[in-house]
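Below sits the subject:
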Amino acid sequence: MEEDKKVKIDPFKGIGLCFSGGGYRATFYSLGIVSYLNVVQFEDKPLLEEVQAMSSVSGGTLLAVAYAKMAQELKTDFKTFFKTFYDTFTPENDTLLETAINKLEDDKIWKANEHKTRSLINAFALVYAEMDVFKGDFSLFETPESKHLKQVCFNATDFSFGLTYRFQNDGDFGSAPLDNALVKALRPKIKLGDVIASSSCFPLGFEPLLFPDDYFKDQKDENYQKLKSLKRFENGVGIMDGGIADNQGIGSMMLINGRMKGALNLIIVNDVGSFKMKPWQQDDSYTKKGPSIKQFFAKALSYFKIKALYIILILIGLALIILNSMHVFNTCNECALPVLYIIGSILMGIGLTLTFLGGLATIATKLVKAKIASLFRKNVPEVLLDDIITFKKLDIGLVQQMLTNRLTSTVKMVNDVFLKQLRRLNYDLFYSKSSLIHKRITTTVYKLNGQETAYSGGTPKYNELIKPSPSSLLKDVCLTASETPTTLWWDKEDILKNRMDTLIACGQFTLCYELMEYIIELKNSKHDLDIDFDALDKVDKQLKKHWTAFNKDPFFLVKAMKK
């Protein structure tokens, strides 16, 4: 290709980072990514200082908010930030879950924060807001002070229109139907703790937050009251996990790049999600357990009503008292037996008490049944109503099996099928853009774990031009990292397997590998591209040196950064 027809690319001038969702797995894999970018030098400064934009989801948002905050405040060098963030979340220091539960149980907390719904996710939001690494509000990003990081987007999902809800400092705030001048006026006052909670409250584990209700303590603010007067906001907008609509933050980054007129020369998507899923298993443990649902509840409810026995007890007690007064039970015509008065009174008391309680229970039962019926009418899809009514005739064991299969398959659909399909669609969008050719990298937490998959057609193959091949030790560390569950806490197995360090190391050596592959890709197209290959070679030499070290000790860089 002639020189004037070559495509000019500055590979590391202007980087965009996407951090996927995935609980702590995403948080610390992402920490590995940014920490490695801080090590690799390009034109005498770290690649991290070329990062101009960030888009994050769920667990990735914990790291993204903390780093973006540090980058804007200009008070802390990266190594100090790394140690502070790391120390905050080590298993011995991480009390996030415990503290959130304590807040949830504390009446004083909710009296002091009456604007918030009393819920687990709001308890998490209050904890985040108190943590040094997350303290502050969105005003930090209104006029970015960072020399390099100018665009931030922390993603959630709105439950009014089903769109990605973007906490971002440019473009639509929220989503197009929910963005307006009043929202933008309130935006600087949004606590970073609420942003993190909004992005990370995954379905079934948490409930949505309500915007603007849960976000602003001063609800007498003129802009707040005007916003609440708008129909779309009068009952609040449910805000939940960013992973529902885009678990990699790809769509938001592509919009950012569009607003920057294609200024990003490299977009790195860092993904701890997976194309793999465990197959759904049917529950076939049904054995006949006796009565039908209708019979069971009929029998149970029969105890909560006025019974003939209660009236009989009253009558027997009354009869004993009257007959004893008439001296029927004594040969002495002028004497009554005191013991019969006592027995009669006790029987009458028991009968009256049971009758009173039975009456209350009957009324309560009718009210509860009416409430349940109302809830069914409001919340159960019409197509299922006849199905549920039919359940009344079925054996309890069969109903249990049917409900178990429906629940587990629905959870599988929400947490696996939908997310994976959306993942494919977003990657199709990302890799179909011709304008992003030679400008994109994807790092995945499982890339180097050496495991066979249904898609790999056997043992994974690695780039033959990258030497050495991934060592057994490196692959084992990657496997341990990729098997980390999606939680926002460390369990005993996580601690035993040192998953915090393995995730950070996995992010570091995976990015090292992908950057080497990226440079190979550029060199293979050298006749079509106008690139400073001398500068590229300098980066490549660093990567090769690090790659050799990672294969000997995957934790060598983590150890160095913890000192």
The chain has 21 helices and twelve strands. Residues 372 and 378 are 10 Å apart (CA to CA).
